[in-house]
Design goal:
With about 270 residues, the protein is α/β, with parallel strands linked by helices. Helix content is about 25%, strand content about 25%. It has one domain: 4-Layer Sandwich (Purple Acid Phosphatase, chain A, domain 2). Strand 7 (about 150-155), helix 5 and strand 8 (about 175-180) form a beta-alpha-beta unit. The chain is globular and about 55 Å long. The mean pLDDT is about 95.
Length: about 270
């Protein structure tokens, strides 16, 4: 099975690039399933129902979230009725939406997605390790009725993300990070067969400061008052993500390859 994960969509350039490229990606890479983190899609802060619908129509199967999941109030009602939009699993009980879902591909393959948020330098949510322990199957995906198990860990600290990767090793097909907007070069398969990457990067304009227009972000660092409002950079976006192929029997990873398309980042196209 072949799955594409794309990092955080940031603003209009990121949205438009994903919508434009998705049909080609699905066709040329022969993808069975696509997951995208969409928590920065609406001008860098949150996502709207209309944006979700556009992404689903373009070929995205599931959208994951993070600390900006609730920035657009209209998403609160939408998320309860749309199982393809996830928010972190370790938000407190009673939070709208769900942090995990089971989906079926056109070929009948079963995919389990889990979305968690880390705690180091982030909001003090429930323990992501405990949330994963309660929600992850006890064995390899193929042993417990799944063809692919994916964990999106939305967090700041590489140490915590690496801890989650090893914690899930052997029980997930892919554990991949979001939130920092910078693609890490540590994509690999862990000892237990789980594909891992600390951060997938973003779908946005890299001629920026993590997707935001450079000058307002610089002014914040330089301490100029009043504090300027951040806004997404509007140049050409790069799509950043990773493609994982699994063993049909075990559901564990055979390969993990980076994807970078367009914009100012060096290109990377998975060899299929």
């Amino acid at each position: 099975m072949r799955v594409l994960f794309l990092g955080d969509i940031v603003g209009r350039p990121g949205r438009e690039a994903v919508l434009r490229e998705m049909p080609r990606l699905r066709d040329e890479l022969a993808l069975d399933f696509v997951v995208v983190n969409g928590e920065n899609a609406a001008h860098g802060f949150g996502i709207t129902p209309g944006m979700c619908d556009d992404l689903f129509d373009a070929g995205v199967d599931v959208i994951t979230g993070g600390n900006h999941s609730w920035d657009k109030q209209e998403i609160l009602d939408y998320i309860d009725g749309e199982p393809r939009l996830l928010r972190p699993l370790n938000f407190p009980s009673g939070t709208p939406g769900k942090g995990t879902g089971v989906y079926e591909t056109a070929r009948g393959e079963r995919v389990l997605i889990l979305n968690v948020m880390c705690r180091l330098f982030m909001e003090p949510l429930d323990d992501p390790f405990d949330a994963l322990e309660r929600s992850l199957p006890p064995g390899a995906p193929g042993e417990v009725g799944f063809d692919f198990v994916l964990v999106d860990m939305h967090g700041e600290a590489t140490s915590e993300k690496m801890g989650i990767g090893h914690f899930c090793d052997g029980r997930a097909s892919l554990v991949v990070g979001t939130h920092t907007h910078v693609p890490t070069a540590d994509h690999r398969i862990l000892d237990g067969g789980t594909a891992y990457q600390t951060d997938a990067g973003m779908c946005g304009d890299y001629n920026s400061i993590i997707g935001m227009a450079t000058q307002p972000a610089l002014d914040r660092f330089l301490g100029r008052l009043p504090k300027p409002r951040l806004k997404p950079a509007e140049g050409e976006a790069s799509l950043s993500g990773t493609v994982v192929e699994t063993d049909d029997k075990t559901g564990l990873a055979k390969t993990i390859r980076p994807l970078r398309v367009g914009g100012s980042l060096s290109a990377a196209w998975p060899k299929i």
